[in-house]
Specification:
The chain is α/β, with parallel strands linked by helices and about 240 residues long. It contains seven helices and ten strands.
Length: about 240
């Protein structure tokens, strides 16, 4: 069985400052599972956003190939999660094992796809429109464009896709590929799953030498409002209702 701490992930370390504890439950029976999670305080949400912001300059400056190595390492860690992990996800979500195994493959596949895009280089969208000196009524000079990253991104886990649209899902993969550190808000319906996947992301970050704060995760109900209103968060990715 995995070692579940139930603590928030901030700058590569664990944090449990708050007194509110939320329980993981079996989705089929409603039975409480033996895992408790510490709801993030406003100070912890602030610390997670600051950790992501501090990591941004170094992470964004890494060569695309280094970020691709990170994404490939995440994919490898996800594929290595074993039968115990699948069984836990099934208990938290009431989804069958075949569905979870397939979704795990989709999730690691997304990471590898973004890694390929990074190595290919066309994600930069670099373009030069040559001058048109004879254009009427006014000439046009050279126009040079290149897409750049935004900064820290908040990502919210989806209820019905515990892997492919959650901790290491497509929103997280695209943000990390673009050079944007992530603060992930775990969905309260599958917190054990979120922690197992977050551990995989952290292991990959350590193996590939990523800066502390490249990936952070918080738990709890209502804490997302603090996150999306935080001045350091530059974008939000989520699947589901606005609420």
């Amino acid at each position: 069985m995995p070692n579940i701490s139930g603590q928030n992930y901030i700058a590569g370390a664990r944090s449990a400052q708050g007194s509110v504890v939320v329980q993981s439950v079996d989705a089929s029976t409603g039975e409480a599972l033996p895992y408790e999670f510490h709801q993030a305080t406003e100070d912890e949400v602030n610390a997670a956003a600051q950790a992501a912001a501090s990591a941004y300059p170094e992470y964004r400056a890494l060569p695309a190939g280094r970020r691709a190595d990170f994404l490939d390492a995440i994919a490898d860690e996800l594929d290595a999660l074993g039968d115990d992990f699948v069984a836990l996800v099934c208990r938290e979500t009431a989804l069958p094992a075949g569905r979870i195994q397939g979704e795990r493959g989709r999730t690691s596949g997304q990471m590898r796809l973004f890694a390929k895009v990074l190595r290919r280089g066309d994600f930069l969208g670099a373009r030069i429109d040559r001058a048109l000196p004879e254009r009427k009524p006014l000439p046009r000079p050279d126009l040079r464009q290149c897409r750049m990253g935004l900064g820290p991104v908040a990502v919210f886990g989806a209820s019905n896709f515990p892997l492919a649209f959650s901790t290491a899902g497509g929103d997280t993969a695209s943000a990390l590929a673009a050079g944007c550190p992530v603060v992930f808000k775990a969905h309260s319906g599958h917190m054990v799953t979120a922690e197992c996947v977050a551990d995989a992301v952290i292991r990959a970050a350590e193996k590939t030498g990523m800066p502390k704060g490249v990936f952070n995760m918080i738990y709890g109900g209502g804490v997302g409002e603090w996150l999306v209103k935080h001045p350091l968060i530059q974008a939000v990715g989520f699947t589901g209702s606005l609420r």
